[in-house]
Design goal:
about 375 residues; mainly alpha
Protein backbone atom coordinates (compact mmCIF):
# COMPACT_ATOMS: atom_id res chain seq x y z
CA UNK A 1 0.00 0.00 0.00
CA UNK A 2 2.84 2.39 0.81
CA UNK A 3 4.54 1.68 -2.52
CA UNK A 4 1.30 2.12 -4.46
CA UNK A 5 0.64 5.40 -2.66
CA UNK A 6 4.16 6.61 -3.44
CA UNK A 7 3.75 5.76 -7.13
CA UNK A 8 0.24 7.20 -7.47
CA UNK A 9 1.00 10.51 -5.77
CA UNK A 10 4.27 10.93 -7.67
CA UNK A 11 2.57 10.37 -11.03
CA UNK A 12 -0.20 12.76 -10.01
CA UNK A 13 2.36 15.48 -9.27
CA UNK A 14 4.59 14.72 -12.29
CA UNK A 15 1.88 15.13 -14.95
CA UNK A 16 1.05 18.80 -14.24
CA UNK A 17 4.72 19.66 -13.70
CA UNK A 18 5.64 18.10 -17.06
CA UNK A 19 2.75 19.99 -18.69
CA UNK A 20 4.16 23.24 -17.30
CA UNK A 21 7.57 22.38 -18.77
CA UNK A 22 9.41 21.84 -15.48
CA UNK A 23 12.82 20.25 -16.22
CA UNK A 24 13.19 16.66 -14.95
CA UNK A 25 9.61 16.80 -13.67
CA UNK A 26 9.57 13.14 -12.62
CA UNK A 27 12.69 13.46 -10.49
CA UNK A 28 11.56 16.69 -8.81
CA UNK A 29 8.10 15.28 -8.07
CA UNK A 30 9.51 12.00 -6.75
CA UNK A 31 11.97 13.86 -4.53
CA UNK A 32 9.27 16.06 -2.97
CA UNK A 33 6.70 13.26 -2.61
CA UNK A 34 9.33 10.92 -1.16
CA UNK A 35 10.34 13.54 1.41
CA UNK A 36 6.72 14.20 2.43
CA UNK A 37 5.77 10.53 2.75
CA UNK A 38 8.99 9.70 4.59
CA UNK A 39 8.33 12.58 6.96
CA UNK A 40 4.73 11.47 7.75
CA UNK A 41 5.89 8.55 7.79
CA UNK A 42 4.03 6.53 5.16
CA UNK A 43 6.61 5.38 2.63
CA UNK A 44 8.58 2.25 1.67
CA UNK A 45 11.93 1.82 3.39
CA UNK A 46 14.05 2.18 0.26
CA UNK A 47 14.26 1.75 -3.51
CA UNK A 48 15.52 -1.72 -4.56
CA UNK A 49 19.20 -1.57 -5.49
CA UNK A 50 18.77 -3.11 -8.94
CA UNK A 51 15.99 -0.68 -9.79
CA UNK A 52 18.24 2.21 -8.81
CA UNK A 53 21.10 0.90 -10.96
CA UNK A 54 18.76 0.40 -13.93
CA UNK A 55 17.55 3.99 -13.55
CA UNK A 56 21.15 5.26 -13.50
CA UNK A 57 21.93 3.34 -16.68
CA UNK A 58 18.84 4.62 -18.50
CA UNK A 59 19.70 8.20 -17.56
CA UNK A 60 23.27 7.66 -18.71
CA UNK A 61 22.08 6.54 -22.13
CA UNK A 62 19.55 9.40 -22.28
CA UNK A 63 22.23 12.02 -21.58
CA UNK A 64 24.57 10.35 -24.08
CA UNK A 65 21.99 10.62 -26.88
CA UNK A 66 22.22 14.41 -26.58
CA UNK A 67 25.66 14.26 -28.22
CA UNK A 68 25.56 14.77 -31.99
CA UNK A 69 28.41 15.19 -34.45
CA UNK A 70 26.60 18.02 -36.26
CA UNK A 71 26.32 20.05 -33.06
CA UNK A 72 30.03 19.77 -32.33
CA UNK A 73 30.77 20.81 -35.91
CA UNK A 74 29.09 24.14 -35.14
CA UNK A 75 31.96 25.02 -32.79
CA UNK A 76 34.43 25.10 -35.65
CA UNK A 77 37.78 26.46 -34.45
CA UNK A 78 36.24 27.74 -31.22
CA UNK A 79 36.20 24.41 -29.38
CA UNK A 80 39.40 25.12 -27.33
CA UNK A 81 37.92 28.26 -25.72
CA UNK A 82 34.56 26.52 -25.22
CA UNK A 83 36.34 23.64 -23.46
CA UNK A 84 38.41 26.09 -21.42
CA UNK A 85 35.26 27.91 -20.29
CA UNK A 86 33.71 24.58 -19.29
CA UNK A 87 36.83 23.75 -17.26
CA UNK A 88 36.57 27.20 -15.68
CA UNK A 89 32.96 26.48 -14.70
CA UNK A 90 34.08 23.19 -13.15
CA UNK A 91 36.76 25.04 -11.17
CA UNK A 92 34.18 27.54 -9.91
CA UNK A 93 31.91 24.67 -8.92
CA UNK A 94 34.70 22.96 -6.99
CA UNK A 95 35.51 26.19 -5.13
CA UNK A 96 31.83 26.63 -4.25
CA UNK A 97 31.62 23.01 -3.15
CA UNK A 98 34.73 23.44 -1.00
CA UNK A 99 33.12 26.42 0.74
CA UNK A 100 29.89 24.45 1.27
CA UNK A 101 31.92 21.52 2.59
CA UNK A 102 33.22 23.75 5.38
CA UNK A 103 29.75 23.67 6.95
CA UNK A 104 29.57 21.34 9.92
CA UNK A 105 26.62 19.31 8.54
CA UNK A 106 28.10 18.75 5.06
CA UNK A 107 30.99 16.39 4.33
CA UNK A 108 33.71 17.54 1.86
CA UNK A 109 32.65 14.93 -0.72
CA UNK A 110 28.99 15.93 -0.48
CA UNK A 111 29.83 19.62 -0.79
CA UNK A 112 32.00 18.98 -3.84
CA UNK A 113 29.18 17.09 -5.60
CA UNK A 114 26.34 19.36 -4.53
CA UNK A 115 27.45 22.47 -6.42
CA UNK A 116 28.86 20.89 -9.58
CA UNK A 117 27.20 22.87 -12.37
CA UNK A 118 25.99 20.16 -14.69
CA UNK A 119 24.00 16.96 -14.87
CA UNK A 120 21.93 17.38 -11.71
CA UNK A 121 20.03 14.11 -12.13
CA UNK A 122 23.25 12.21 -12.87
CA UNK A 123 25.04 13.62 -9.83
CA UNK A 124 22.13 12.74 -7.55
CA UNK A 125 22.14 9.24 -9.05
CA UNK A 126 25.79 8.56 -8.27
CA UNK A 127 26.11 10.48 -4.97
CA UNK A 128 25.13 7.43 -2.90
CA UNK A 129 27.55 5.19 -4.78
CA UNK A 130 30.44 7.60 -4.16
CA UNK A 131 29.67 7.73 -0.44
CA UNK A 132 28.13 11.21 -0.37
CA UNK A 133 24.81 12.27 1.10
CA UNK A 134 22.40 12.14 -1.85
CA UNK A 135 19.79 14.07 0.14
CA UNK A 136 21.96 17.18 0.34
CA UNK A 137 23.13 16.75 -3.26
CA UNK A 138 19.53 16.44 -4.49
CA UNK A 139 18.24 19.51 -2.66
CA UNK A 140 21.20 21.73 -3.58
CA UNK A 141 21.32 20.59 -7.21
CA UNK A 142 17.63 21.16 -7.82
CA UNK A 143 17.68 24.46 -5.99
CA UNK A 144 20.51 25.47 -8.34
CA UNK A 145 18.54 24.44 -11.42
CA UNK A 146 15.36 26.11 -10.13
CA UNK A 147 17.03 29.45 -9.31
CA UNK A 148 18.97 29.63 -12.57
CA UNK A 149 15.95 28.60 -14.65
CA UNK A 150 13.69 31.11 -12.90
CA UNK A 151 16.18 33.97 -13.29
CA UNK A 152 16.98 33.28 -16.95
CA UNK A 153 13.96 35.06 -18.52
CA UNK A 154 14.64 38.12 -16.34
CA UNK A 155 18.34 38.24 -17.22
CA UNK A 156 17.70 37.67 -20.93
CA UNK A 157 15.12 40.44 -21.05
CA UNK A 158 16.64 43.09 -18.75
CA UNK A 159 20.37 42.56 -19.35
CA UNK A 160 20.51 41.37 -22.97
CA UNK A 161 17.28 43.05 -24.14
CA UNK A 162 16.25 39.93 -26.04
CA UNK A 163 12.76 39.43 -27.39
CA UNK A 164 10.94 36.46 -28.86
CA UNK A 165 12.13 35.87 -32.43
CA UNK A 166 9.57 36.04 -35.20
CA UNK A 167 11.42 33.28 -37.01
CA UNK A 168 12.73 30.42 -34.93
CA UNK A 169 15.63 28.49 -36.46
CA UNK A 170 14.82 24.82 -36.86
CA UNK A 171 16.71 22.32 -34.74
CA UNK A 172 17.91 19.35 -36.72
CA UNK A 173 16.38 16.06 -35.68
CA UNK A 174 17.38 12.60 -36.79
CA UNK A 175 15.15 9.61 -37.29
CA UNK A 176 14.72 7.58 -34.12
CA UNK A 177 14.54 3.85 -33.65
CA UNK A 178 11.09 2.56 -32.66
CA UNK A 179 10.75 1.75 -28.98
CA UNK A 180 10.70 -2.02 -29.52
CA UNK A 181 14.21 -1.79 -30.99
CA UNK A 182 15.49 0.99 -28.73
CA UNK A 183 14.62 -0.81 -25.48
CA UNK A 184 16.65 -4.01 -26.23
CA UNK A 185 19.62 -1.92 -27.43
CA UNK A 186 19.27 0.25 -24.32
CA UNK A 187 19.32 -2.86 -22.12
CA UNK A 188 22.50 -4.15 -23.73
CA UNK A 189 24.23 -0.78 -23.35
CA UNK A 190 23.23 -0.45 -19.70
CA UNK A 191 24.46 -3.93 -18.77
CA UNK A 192 27.68 -3.68 -20.78
CA UNK A 193 28.38 -0.12 -19.62
CA UNK A 194 27.84 -0.88 -15.94
CA UNK A 195 29.94 -4.05 -16.10
CA UNK A 196 32.71 -2.37 -18.07
CA UNK A 197 32.72 0.66 -15.79
CA UNK A 198 33.09 -1.51 -12.70
CA UNK A 199 35.85 -3.53 -14.38
CA UNK A 200 37.94 -0.37 -14.90
CA UNK A 201 36.85 0.96 -11.47
CA UNK A 202 35.08 3.98 -12.92
CA UNK A 203 33.36 6.14 -10.25
CA UNK A 204 29.60 6.06 -10.74
CA UNK A 205 29.91 3.19 -13.22
CA UNK A 206 26.15 2.58 -13.29
CA UNK A 207 25.61 5.97 -14.93
CA UNK A 208 28.92 6.87 -16.55
CA UNK A 209 29.59 3.46 -18.16
CA UNK A 210 26.39 3.42 -20.28
CA UNK A 211 26.85 7.14 -20.99
CA UNK A 212 30.37 6.58 -22.31
CA UNK A 213 29.23 3.79 -24.65
CA UNK A 214 26.33 5.90 -25.93
CA UNK A 215 28.57 8.91 -26.60
CA UNK A 216 30.94 6.72 -28.62
CA UNK A 217 28.03 5.26 -30.61
CA UNK A 218 26.63 8.74 -31.29
CA UNK A 219 29.96 10.20 -32.42
CA UNK A 220 30.76 7.21 -34.65
CA UNK A 221 27.27 7.17 -36.18
CA UNK A 222 26.57 3.65 -34.90
CA UNK A 223 23.68 4.52 -32.58
CA UNK A 224 21.19 4.00 -35.45
CA UNK A 225 18.86 6.63 -34.00
CA UNK A 226 18.76 5.17 -30.47
CA UNK A 227 16.20 7.05 -28.38
CA UNK A 228 15.16 6.43 -24.77
CA UNK A 229 11.34 6.37 -24.55
CA UNK A 230 9.94 9.35 -22.63
CA UNK A 231 8.06 7.10 -20.23
CA UNK A 232 11.25 5.24 -19.36
CA UNK A 233 13.08 8.53 -18.79
CA UNK A 234 10.38 9.73 -16.39
CA UNK A 235 10.35 6.39 -14.55
CA UNK A 236 14.12 6.61 -14.16
CA UNK A 237 13.81 10.15 -12.84
CA UNK A 238 11.23 8.96 -10.32
CA UNK A 239 13.42 6.10 -9.08
CA UNK A 240 16.37 8.44 -8.55
CA UNK A 241 14.12 10.98 -6.83
CA UNK A 242 12.64 8.34 -4.53
CA UNK A 243 16.10 7.06 -3.70
CA UNK A 244 17.04 10.48 -2.34
CA UNK A 245 13.65 11.49 -0.94
CA UNK A 246 12.98 8.35 1.10
CA UNK A 247 16.24 8.84 3.01
CA UNK A 248 15.07 12.11 4.58
CA UNK A 249 14.36 12.38 8.28
CA UNK A 250 13.16 15.28 10.42
CA UNK A 251 16.71 15.73 11.71
CA UNK A 252 18.16 15.96 8.20
CA UNK A 253 15.52 18.52 7.15
CA UNK A 254 16.42 20.71 10.11
CA UNK A 255 20.09 20.41 9.19
CA UNK A 256 19.43 21.34 5.55
CA UNK A 257 17.41 24.38 6.64
CA UNK A 258 20.55 25.70 8.33
CA UNK A 259 22.63 25.62 5.13
CA UNK A 260 20.07 27.16 2.75
CA UNK A 261 21.32 30.78 3.08
CA UNK A 262 24.86 29.62 2.29
CA UNK A 263 23.65 27.49 -0.62
CA UNK A 264 21.62 30.31 -2.19
CA UNK A 265 24.54 32.74 -1.89
CA UNK A 266 26.92 30.27 -3.53
CA UNK A 267 24.46 29.55 -6.37
CA UNK A 268 24.03 33.28 -7.10
CA UNK A 269 27.81 33.77 -7.06
CA UNK A 270 28.27 30.80 -9.41
CA UNK A 271 25.67 32.17 -11.82
CA UNK A 272 27.30 35.62 -11.90
CA UNK A 273 30.77 34.13 -12.41
CA UNK A 274 29.49 31.91 -15.24
CA UNK A 275 27.94 34.98 -16.90
CA UNK A 276 31.38 36.56 -16.75
CA UNK A 277 32.79 33.53 -18.55
CA UNK A 278 30.03 34.04 -21.13
CA UNK A 279 31.32 37.57 -21.75
CA UNK A 280 34.83 36.16 -22.21
CA UNK A 281 33.51 33.54 -24.65
CA UNK A 282 31.68 36.22 -26.63
CA UNK A 283 34.76 38.45 -26.85
CA UNK A 284 37.10 35.64 -27.97
CA UNK A 285 34.79 33.89 -30.46
CA UNK A 286 32.85 36.89 -31.72
CA UNK A 287 29.46 35.29 -31.02
CA UNK A 288 26.59 37.40 -29.76
CA UNK A 289 26.69 38.29 -26.04
CA UNK A 290 23.38 36.48 -25.49
CA UNK A 291 24.79 33.35 -27.14
CA UNK A 292 27.78 33.53 -24.79
CA UNK A 293 25.50 33.80 -21.76
CA UNK A 294 23.31 30.89 -22.83
CA UNK A 295 26.32 28.74 -23.77
CA UNK A 296 27.87 29.15 -20.31
CA UNK A 297 24.74 29.09 -18.13
CA UNK A 298 25.55 26.70 -15.24
CA UNK A 299 22.21 24.93 -15.16
CA UNK A 300 18.78 24.34 -16.65
CA UNK A 301 19.95 23.01 -20.01
CA UNK A 302 16.38 22.48 -21.25
CA UNK A 303 15.44 26.04 -20.32
CA UNK A 304 18.62 27.27 -22.00
CA UNK A 305 17.81 25.51 -25.27
CA UNK A 306 14.19 26.69 -25.20
CA UNK A 307 15.37 30.27 -24.63
CA UNK A 308 17.92 29.98 -27.44
CA UNK A 309 15.22 28.85 -29.87
CA UNK A 310 12.71 31.51 -28.83
CA UNK A 311 15.21 34.39 -29.02
CA UNK A 312 16.65 33.34 -32.39
CA UNK A 313 20.09 32.59 -30.96
CA UNK A 314 22.69 30.26 -32.48
CA UNK A 315 21.03 27.07 -31.24
CA UNK A 316 23.65 24.60 -32.52
CA UNK A 317 26.50 26.56 -30.89
CA UNK A 318 24.63 26.75 -27.58
CA UNK A 319 23.75 23.04 -27.69
CA UNK A 320 27.37 22.02 -28.36
CA UNK A 321 28.74 24.21 -25.55
CA UNK A 322 26.13 23.00 -23.07
CA UNK A 323 26.66 19.32 -23.92
CA UNK A 324 30.42 19.74 -23.45
CA UNK A 325 29.76 21.32 -20.04
CA UNK A 326 27.42 18.54 -18.88
CA UNK A 327 29.69 15.72 -20.07
CA UNK A 328 32.78 17.32 -18.54
CA UNK A 329 31.01 17.77 -15.21
CA UNK A 330 29.62 14.25 -15.05
CA UNK A 331 32.83 12.50 -16.06
CA UNK A 332 35.25 14.56 -13.97
CA UNK A 333 33.14 15.55 -10.94
CA UNK A 334 33.39 12.12 -9.24
CA UNK A 335 37.18 12.12 -9.63
CA UNK A 336 37.49 15.71 -8.41
CA UNK A 337 35.16 15.03 -5.47
CA UNK A 338 37.16 12.01 -4.32
CA UNK A 339 40.46 13.84 -4.75
CA UNK A 340 39.07 16.74 -2.75
CA UNK A 341 37.92 14.36 -0.02
CA UNK A 342 41.38 12.84 0.27
CA UNK A 343 43.00 16.28 0.32
CA UNK A 344 40.59 17.50 3.03
CA UNK A 345 41.51 14.60 5.31
CA UNK A 346 39.26 12.44 7.47
CA UNK A 347 37.05 15.10 8.99
CA UNK A 348 34.32 13.96 11.36
CA UNK A 349 31.24 12.96 9.38
CA UNK A 350 28.27 15.24 9.91
CA UNK A 351 25.03 13.98 11.47
CA UNK A 352 23.25 14.47 8.16
CA UNK A 353 25.68 12.25 6.29
CA UNK A 354 26.02 9.74 9.11
CA UNK A 355 22.33 8.84 8.93
CA UNK A 356 22.71 7.65 5.33
CA UNK A 357 25.89 5.61 5.78
CA UNK A 358 24.14 2.34 6.54
CA UNK A 359 21.97 2.29 3.39
CA UNK A 360 25.08 3.21 1.42
CA UNK A 361 26.87 0.11 2.69
CA UNK A 362 23.82 -2.02 1.96
CA UNK A 363 23.62 -0.67 -1.59
CA UNK A 364 27.29 -1.33 -2.22
Amino acid sequence: MRSLTLIAVTVGVTVPLATLGVPSAGLFAALVVGIVLAFVPFAPRRVPRRAGLAAQGALGVYIGTMVHRDAFGALGSHWPIVLAVAVGTLALSVVGGALLGLHRVVSPLTGALALVAGGASGLVAIARELGGDERVVAVVQYLRVALITASMPVVVTLVYHASKATHQPPVAESASLPWYLSVPLLTVIVIAGAAGGRFVRMPGAGLLGPMAITVVLELTGLSFGLAVPTVLVQVSYMLIGWQAGLAFTRESLRALGGILPTVISLIVALNVAAAGLGVLLSEVTGVDALDGYLATSPGGIYAVLATAVETGSDVTFVIAAQVIRVLLMLFTAPLVARAFQRYSGDRQISPTTLASREPIRVAD
